[in-house]
What does this fold into?
Amino acid sequence: MKRDSLAFWGRLTIVLASVVFAILLLVGGTLAANYKGMGNLIKVVTLVKGQYLFEVTPEKLVEGAIKGVVESLNDPYSAYLDKKTYSALQEQIRGSFGGIGILVGMKDHYLTVVKPFPNTPAAEKDIRAGDIIIAIDDKQAKDMDTDTAVNLMRGPVGSKVELTILREGDEKPFPVQLTREEISVPTVEGRMVPDENNVGYIVIGQFTENTGEEMVRTIAELREQNMAGLVLDLRDNPGGELNSAIKVADQFLGKGPIVHIDYRIGKDYTFDAEPDQLNMPLVVLVNKGSASASEILAGAIKDAGVGTLVGTKTFGKGIVQTVFPLDNGAGLKLTTARYLTPNKNDIHKKGIAPHVVIEQEIHAKQDKQLETAIKIIRDKIHQ
It folds into this structure.
């Protein structure tokens, strides 16, 4: 057994050394110049095997080495993704997951239903906003963080979960059995502005694979209600899927570039708009929480001159990440390109300045930015 263990660790050492050697070749280094660095890696592995107090698996060491390679880039947007994190990211990009269809939050130490989504298992079982979740299966939910709660409620489609619910006005909690289904959380919400004839309002919360189609559908619905001008709210939109942002931008731009993708390796690429724009007054709300894909959209609208940006300067994330699948369900999120606005402005770490700067106080009851946007749209409609 000991001989097998030594042989295995010997193979691991050779693999790690080979990895380092390959890295040196890729970055143009030489073995002679970096011999000590590679030797140190082998020495560390040997010391861990022979001297470390606790037992550690070879798999854990290999994963640690991979993380170290990525962390050495000093890029906050590049990351090694373990199986669980990679799966969650894929769900976020798809905009769908196996779940029961509720939004939850914390209220007075209790996990509380903020809202159930229509046509989901939660809605079908009459779970209501304000319901307190006492337990998820056999786990008590008091003081449970929302991330843990969400992970417990999500799972494979067709699997079951039981919630113990306490409803306002009831003395005793009651159990609710739910069967998980594929849940698609809407990323686009639209409505006509009350008391404002012909002004539409659309919020995009993030960009997933479904956002482009949701936007097309929402615009069509508001047009049927005689929308003559639109306020598009991208505040606190963290970004997401690149192609969805391009599809949304294509609704507003008549022709010309939407975004330029600039690669270090490989051919640069420009996404161009199709000539079928919305062609109506447009105001876009942005703030420091508007990042990445939402900045692609805002930058395209600003450079093309088809809308007015209102709010505060955007976050300033002008680089693109590609997600690569790895073995054993893991993944690698790696910065592979930067993007430039249609006028070839690099906004990374700079952000996009709005045409009209309006500060918004945190927790203020009055939304000055939205009020300003509506006034601008109203004036444009009546010009």
